[in-house]
Amino acid sequence: MTDQIPFDAVEFVENPEPRCPCVLLLDTSASMGGEPIRELVAGLAAYFDELAADELARKRVEISVITFGGSVNVVQEFAGPADCYFPDLTPMGMTPMGEAIETGLRLLEERKESYRANGVSIFRPWVFLITDGAPTDRWQHLESQIAAGEERGSFLFFAVGTQGADFGVLDRLSARDALKLKGLRFRDLFAWLSASQKSVSRSAPGTAIALPPATGPDGWGEVHI
Amino acid sequence: MWIPVGCSVAGPIHEAARRDCEDTFAISCIPKLGASGLLLVCSDGAGSVELGRVGAEITAQVVTSEVARLATADGELFGNGAWVGVVEVVRSTLEREAAIRDCGLGDLACTMVAAFVNSSGASVAQIGDGAIVAQGSDGTQVAITWPQHGEYANLTSFVTSPDALDRLEYAVIEDDLQALALFTDGLERLVLDFNHRTVPGGFLTPLWSALRSTDALADFSRNLALFLRSERIRSRTDDDITLVLGVRSGTSQE
Which member of B47, B109, B191 has the closest CB to residue A13? Predict the structure, then answer.
């Protein structure tokens, strides 16, 4: 017998890949000017590259980037990491965090509806909020909306604050403890996020998603007191 | 009579973590039913728990012994009540195992995909993902069960879940089935069309034909293992894979 692989007449169905949608809500208010925004942008660029370089994550993870600084801007509609348009982030203005969260949750729901209509299965979506301050618009109504979404399993909501962020607000918004970024370690934060989403995008049912530790001596974040 | 064959291969993600394949399967002929009786089972241990493989092996063994015990020679097929009874025995066996090992029932989490065939047709039952596809007497292929994924691609139900009996899906097919296939979730996206919820047939038809025409089952079995380990398959899925096939042979030459 030759080394020919048998059953080459077998045909495989081409199903759409299951998707892992991720919404990034990024603070670009005036206080983020200078080194903070430079580090954030560098971390974001590396995040897109890491995911695009991974065979499964490239096909499965879809990212939407929404900034809030002065106004709320959807700088990136849901797209795979290789197709992500690299945003020009210029810090300015106040912090309309409430409107950004509302926009993000709405776009996520619309995207899920689109997946359902097209028979595309998904992994539980991520919503990731990064801020250095406090919301300057109405946000209180979102506390129960996020809690209900988490309860239903509609998404996982993570909040990360830098030094100076209002953790009282972040802890109310997020069902899990908000994390405090050590210094300006955005690159490490985004490296953690890409590693985590690579794990999720290859997870089979029942597989543990061992997220790398965010906290601890080598981690980029800590649970604030 | 039926010609059955099965194969389980570990996925690269499990091999890399030095874990055994957590899928298992069982094939048994049921003596009191003679040549027309067959039971096919597969079970996929949950990768997130320590003892999924143990749970899967127990599930396959207990389904086999319970179906053999309950099957009657008069061609009666299992209804929902009989399958509920089988699952209850599986669960109580898993509970005893958990007590012996001093672990939680959930540590033995696994799925169950089973098909019992006799002279009247087939009765199938499933909890979790994977699926059962049959070829009817008219030659058409149909998915008798569909993977239970719930809202998200990486979630499913398990025999050990609190709502397992609510999630138990069963079906009875009174037809002269020509072929059957059972598989765990590793092969779902290659065999089933999720957009249209159909079975296109291009995957199973050539395999069933080859099984019907083989004159050396051991060679077929070896080739099946080679195929499931091939790059073609691995480029599409890195999970554990189990495929159990059965074809009815009716000619005197076979």
Answer: B191
